[in-house]
Amino acid sequence: MKHTDAIDAITGALRDTPGIKALFLSGSYGTGLEDAYSDIDFVMVAADGASDDVAGLWHRAVSKTGEIVLWWDRTVRPVLINAITEDWLRIDLMILKPDQMGGQKQDSLKPLFDHDRIYDTLPEVTAKPIPTPAYAKYQFEEFIRILGLLPLAVGRKEYINGVLGVFHLRNLLVDLLIAETGVRHRGGALHLNRLITEDQKDILTALPPPVATRDQMIAGHMAYAKAYLPRARRLAKQWGVDWPERFEAATWKQLNNTLSIERPYNPD
After folding, report:
1. Which of the listed CATH numbers 3.40.250.10, 3.30.1360.70, 3.40.50.10860, 3.30.460.10 matches domain 3-121?
2. What's CA 129's distance to the chain center, in Å?
3. Residue ranges covered by each domain of the chain
């Protein structure tokens, strides 16, 4: 079923249902950034919130778009239902009570029906995302911590696990690059191209692929450290976050003592 037809079918099935106050498109469709590969995200406002009765109503509505082959009913989060139909239409729903809508913004929602005009009470624009100092520091420290585990992976010859460490470093670098651009609507995990610049893409594509050998594992960690740490330091200064100098210095000392590795960038 076409996405537009699925949206119409679900909207029609719920529009006049008692207790269902509003239904909005969210995610890519809510922000106008959808494409042919997007899932369909909804936010429902229900008087009773994410009850079993509301979940049943949603199941019947989604069933009008095709046979449901995957149904996660409040499994991941207590207000979230995920569904996939036989033709792989991906449909997600967040169910909120009216007084739980305060975190939503008009520029991230598209009303399908809104009996109580809830949309008009919401802030218009999503603020530019800036990590809290505590979370930013955690990200920086986590990157350094993973680097510090390299001697363990080498000593145990855990090269496969070492490759997983490179993937963790890559994810942290991607998060950092997205933070640099300050995109308001990040979207899902498969929406990277529109979130980063061409120069940032060049940085990622130039990094070596993870290979489960001793030398390649070490080289991968060092390449990501060289790409990440100078940029993270600049953002820390911009955000007013204290850089974990002592932790980083101790980590490089440990890497030098165990693997004769030098810091691959100049912190000054």
Report:
1. 3.30.460.10
2. 13
3. 3-121, 133-259
Closest C-alpha to 26, from 189, 190, 194, 186:
186
Does residue 147 have a pLDDT over 90? Answer: yes
Domain 133-259 class? mainly alpha
- 3-class secondary structure, 76: coil
E strand or H helix at 244, and its extent?
A: none
The Cα 232–Cα 187 span in angstroms is: 23
Q: What is the dihedral of CA 245, 251, 257, 263, to 10 degrees?
A: -70
Euclidean distance between CA atoms 5 and 33, whole angstroms: 18
Side chain identity at residue 130, one-letter code: I
Sign of the Cα torsion 127, 133, 138, 144 reads positive
CA distance 59 to 23: 15
| pLDDT > 90 in the chain, percent | 82
Cβ(197)–Cβ(147) below 8 Å: no
Single out the residue of 102, 83, 8, 85 nearest to residue 41, CA to CA: 83
Question: CA–CA distance from 247 to each of 140, 141, 148, 233, 252 (Å)?
Answer: 10, 8, 10, 13, 9
Distances (CA, A) of 255 to 28, 66, 221, 234: 43, 56, 11, 23
pLDDT band at 54 (very low <50, low <70, confident <90, very high): very high
Report d(CA 155, CA 157) in Å as an integer.
5
Angle CA(147)–CA(152)–CA(158) in degrees, nearest 5? Answer: 105
- Mode of pairing for the β-strands spanning 40-46 and 80-85: unpaired
